[in-house]
UniProtKB/TrEMBL annotation:
Presence of keyword Hydrolase: no
Protein's recorded name: Polysaccharide biosynthesis protein
Regions crossing the membrane: 81-108, 114-135, 147-168, 174-192, 213-235, 255-276, 288-309, 329-350, 357-376, 388-409
Provenance organism: Aurantiacibacter sediminis
Record key words, sorted: Membrane, Transmembrane, Transmembrane helix
Keyword Hydrolase on entry: no
Domain of life: Bacteria
Length: 420
């Protein structure tokens, strides 16, 4: 029965994700035709900064909501858990915004007044953070259908408004950066309004009574999830500073394919593996054997398919972007290979989070970022292919260390009797 419920929820989530991605692809095509590689590159760089910040301010608490609301024997009420996560997100956002301002001044080409840019990016971060909290609520309560519908509604609204603005001659990239998170958070709040009314407690937001269990999950998740998009942000910023905005735009088709793959994987994992309470799972159990098999098959099969499909990448880029983006096809297989390795490593890291050992998930991410930086620094000449190879190398290192740590945990559990 539990398996059937998980399968049904996964199907609903995947359907919503695929619909969302379809809307995003059409929107992306419209923007690519209107703004070209330079405009797309600028939007991608700022979006990366927004998503990286929102990962810190909302990613960890979203994961905590998913796990704590689904826990068999929770120590706090749902209202206390939700209100605590909201309070933590507000605090993290206040701490993160000064760093965002520095990043905007340093790595983002200045197309308009800095105060306007900072305000627009802050609005986008608030929307992206709010959506992560709403998504964590939906996942934790098992409301897959509601989340799928909210995601679809947000994507449809985003596409419709984008088409309307472009038809009116609006081409300011910042507007399109803000539009995506605003559309999805508004639709999410509408879908969750009846639930939120009974779960948000103003006193609990200030006191944060469930901060203990929430932070045990949220802190390592926030740090860990920060490092994954930070790799992409680092590569985009280096490419932008050395090769220009057009080069960032040429990387974007590959990163779009990465987003498509990651969205499907994260959707399925979020409603299945992430919600799997492994705290009492025995070492080297049947389920752990299946997890190990899946972690190896994902990158092996994925990378094989990625290289077989190389001849069609230029055509796909022309269809989804424009002909002037085709020279970015050389980066696509390397970026997708990195994503396949990230997926495999993530399956191992979910185990540590379930057993409240989330701090260990930071180590593979740190190694991955260090690997990307080392690859770039040791390359005699930076090209978009070198940047893409660095991305693949980063997650190869991530996967290797994740596997070593996971096997070490299994041996430790086995030596302690299987579960402790």
């Amino acid at each position: 029965m539990a398996f059937r419920q998980a399968l049904a929820r996964s199907s609903q989530m995947v359907s919503g994700t695929l619909g969302n991605l379809l809307f995003q692809l059409i929107r992306n095509k419209l923007i690519a035709l209107a703004l070209g590689p330079a405009g797309v590159g600028w939007i991608a760089l700022v979006n990366n900064l927004v998503e990286t910040t929102a990962t810190v301010t909302g990613g960890g608490v979203s994961d905590a909501l998913n796990r704590e609301l689904a826990r068999k024997r929770p120590a706090y009420t749902q209202g206390q858990i939700v209100s605590t996560t909201l309070g933590i997100s507000l605090l993290l956002m206040a701490l993160a915004l000064p760093a965002v301002a520095v990043a905007l001044a340093w790595i983002v080409p200045q197309r308009l007044d800095f105060a306007v840019l900072a305000l627009g990016v802050t609005v986008a971060i608030a929307g992206a953070t709010g959506w992560r909290i709403i998504a964590g609520l939906f996942l934790g309560l098992g409301l897959a259908r509601t989340m799928a519908l909210a995601t679809l509604a947000g994507a449809a609204a985003n596409l419709a408004l984008t088409a309307m603005l472009l038809s009116l001659g609006v081409t300011e990239p910042l507007i399109f950066v803000m539009l995506s998170p605003l559309c999805v958070i508004i639709c999410g709040l509408i879908a969750a309004r009846s639930r939120l009314a009974g779960l948000i407690e103003s006193a609990a937001i200030r006191v944060m009574p469930a901060k203990g269990p929430v932070m045990i999950i949220a802190l390592p998740v926030s740090i860990g999830l920060l490092l994954d998009p930070l790799i992409a942000l680092y590569l985009r910023s280096v490419v932008g500073l050395q090769l220009g905005e057009v080069a960032i735009g040429l990387l974007q088709p590959g990163f779009l394919f990465v987003l498509l793959a990651a969205s499907i994987f994260n959707t399925v994992a979020g409603i299945t593996v992430v919600r799997w309470d492994q705290s009492e799972e025995r070492a080297f159990s049947r389920d752990y054997a299946l997890l190990l098999l899946a972690a190896f098959l994902l990158p092996i099969v994925g990378i094989g398919l990625i290289w077989l499909l190389q001849p069609i990448y230029p055509l796909l880029i022309s269809l989804l972007f424009a002909d002037e983006f085709r020279s970015g096809a050389i980066a696509v297989p390397w970026l997708l290979a990195g994503e396949a390795l990230r997926m495999g490593g993530a399956l191992f890291l979910f185990t540590f989070l379930s057993r409240q050992l989330g701090y260990l998930t930071i180590l593979p991410r740190v190694l991955g970022l260090a690997t990307a930086i080392a690859m770039i620094e040791m390359s005699p000449q930076l090209t978009i292919e070198v940047a893409a190879r660095s991305y693949a190398a980063a997650f190869a290192a991530n996967f290797a260390l994740s596997l070593i740590l996971w096997l070490g945990l299994q041996l430790r559990l086995y030596g302690n009797g299987g579960t402790n």
